[in-house]
Structure formats: structure tokens, C-alpha cells
Amino acid sequence: MMTLRLLKRLIVIALSLALALPVACADEILVITQPKTTLKDMSIKRLENVFLRKTLLNDSGTRWIPLNLSPEHPLRQAFSLSLFKKRPEALEVYWNEQYFQGITPPYVVASEEAMLRFVTSTPGAIGYILPCHLDARVQVVFKLTTTTPIQQHCPPSAH
Fold first, then answer.
1. Using CA atoms, how far apart are residues 54 and 83, in angstroms rounded to an integer?
2. If we measure between CA atoms, which residue out of 107, 141, 21, 121 comes closest to residue 129?
3. Could you give the domains of the chain?
4. Are 33 and 126 in contact (CB under 8 A)?
5. pTM for this entry
């Protein structure tokens, strides 16, 4: 039978170990569009449908143009895991099937700056960036929470 003293000691040890573990903190990925967009209601399901090209038009009838970073990019990995609960490479079968139905995957841009420029200059474009890259050229329409550590990809002065 466990004594009260032993039980208290085990609780203290367990609490000490729990406090010593790093806390999983959530970072945000900002989903962006042009500043003049009239988009008011973006849910996670709608966002998923836009990036899977199941929803092709926005509320004003403009064609959605979803953008991605390269599959190896850490932000693309975090975005895909947070939105689809899958890595980008796990969606290849889906995109192969869609391709034969005439639906192409989102355009791939080389960097977050390229994403910002494309979104700024293209009606219907929708992409994602880290908060440290946000500026007045775009409007945030959704904040996607991720447990993947991505803030380390911001410049040191932006943390």
C-alpha cells in the first residue's frame, strides 16, 4: 500500500517533470488576399475547399487563384499539416486524380515575397505568409493556427 508521503513525493516529481518540458506553443499562418477584397466570411472548411480547388469562385464571382510555396518549404509543410492534416506529398494522389478531371493544383511561387507580389497584383489570388512578412499590400482573411514551429523562419528583428 502506498503511503501518503510516497504519494506526495511522486506528485512533486511528476509536477517538476511537467514544468521542465517545453510547452507546445502555437504559431499563426496568415491567409492573405488583395486589400480591396469584399471577403468577410472565411472558415477553415471553406479555406480547405479553395486550396483543394473544390470551391472555384469567391463571393463576387471572381475565380480563386490559390498559391502554394514549394512542397519542401517549411511554411508550406506547416500550412498543409494545419489545414489538411497531411504533408504536401500526401496530397499527390489527390492532385493526380484532379488533373485527369481538368483541375490543376494551386500555383507554386518561390517565396513569401513572391506570394505577396502575386496576391497584390492578381484579383482572386489567395496565399499565406508568416506574420513577420505582413504589410499593407494585402489583407488577412484567416489566421490558421499551427503547432509546427515556424517563427524561426522570420528575420531575427521580426520576432
1. 14
2. 141
3. 24-158 (3.40.190.10)
4. yes
5. 0.80
